[in-house]
Amino acid sequence: MTGQKKRIVLLPGDGIGPEIVRVAVRVLKDCASEFGHHFEFAEFPFGGCAIDATGMPLPAETLVACQAADAILLGAVGGPKWDAQSIGKRPESGLLALRKELGLYINLRPIELRPAIRSLSPLSADRTRDVHIDIIRELAGDIYFGEHRVEADASGERATDEAVYTTGEVERVAKYAFARAEARTGRLASIDKANVLATSQLWRRTVTRLAADHPGVKLEHLYVDNAAMQLVLAPAQFDVILTSNMFGDILSDLGAALVGSIGLIPSMSCGPGPSLYEPIHGSAPSLAGKDLASPVGTILSASMMLRESFGLKQEAEWIESAVDRMFSQGIRTADIAEPGASYLRCSEFGERLHAEMLETVERHAQDV
Ligand code: IPM
Ligand code: MG
Fold this sequence. Notes:
Layout: E1 5-13, H1 17-35, E2 38-43, H2 48-54, H3 60-68, E3 71-76, H4 91-101, E4 106-112, H5 125-128, E5 132-138, E6 148-153, E7 156-161, H6 167-183, E8 187-192, H7 198-211, E9 218-223, H8 224-233, E10 240-243, H9 245-259, E11 268-270, E12 275-277, H10 296-308, H11 313-328, H12 346-367
Parallel strand pairs: 1-2, 1-3, 3-12, 5-10, 8-9, 8-10
Antiparallel strand pairs: 4-5, 4-11, 6-7, 11-12
């Protein structure tokens, strides 16, 4: 097998972003040297640190580099330093601009319980059995990208956020969700608020129409309030979930809570060009610089990059199985440690993972 040559753009961002991205890059480098790939890394300012350096959360140079990349790895953006900024001038607006500019309309967030740390789930063991949900969140439309306006009003102020969806926008993400469901168990739950919102009615009509082309998929529709309840009461009923940008933001945090920590969940955002990988947690300003954050969501985002963007399944499994073995050995990060129990710092987890990965290579070399 000849190695792959890939250019990976790194956007560490703010808060804990740089610490966690550093660990994930080490893992990617290990994969490159072990499997004979050539990964080239280039880091660019993005988010609050880019506002400080250039006045803009998404500098033109960063965007151009992302457009030319084979894949992008992002840490997190935002922090109290920039909280007073108006919408549009915040680090988060850089993230939204990047999603828009790269046309990243699909966001995949796998809600998967890692076997050795199942007991971290706040739900009882019988409820979390067989939970592995792929949440597919539409990422380029909805209330996130409609007009946001604040005007003076007799009572004080009047604020408006416009939510928009077009048939085309719903179709393209729904097609991806049907394909994903077909590749899995064939169950697709589409989540909306069609009893109230026009955008949701369009959503439901469009998804229902597409179902005719996918006879192998069992489609059901749920209102988002009920879906939130069902995710807690009986999460194993879900296989692939398809939902809008706003509902997907909320439900994916709920999904992360089922797993035991938001620090464990990776994500992939894709469109016509390079895909972007990021943990779904935020920049955790209170942990920044303390080497306390969990790098697991970012490590799993890196392995998702290998699998989904580069087709490197074996490499992804190498990483994921090493993480799972560490969890089975009782190794914990601060977010998932029992009160008073010991845990590894962010960089220590990275060191340990490096050793664990190399050990399987040595073992494998001895076996053959
Ligand atoms: C996420 C985040 C972002 C979002 C924020 C940081 C803008 O919460 O990726 O889920 O709302 O999409
Ligand atoms: Mg979110």
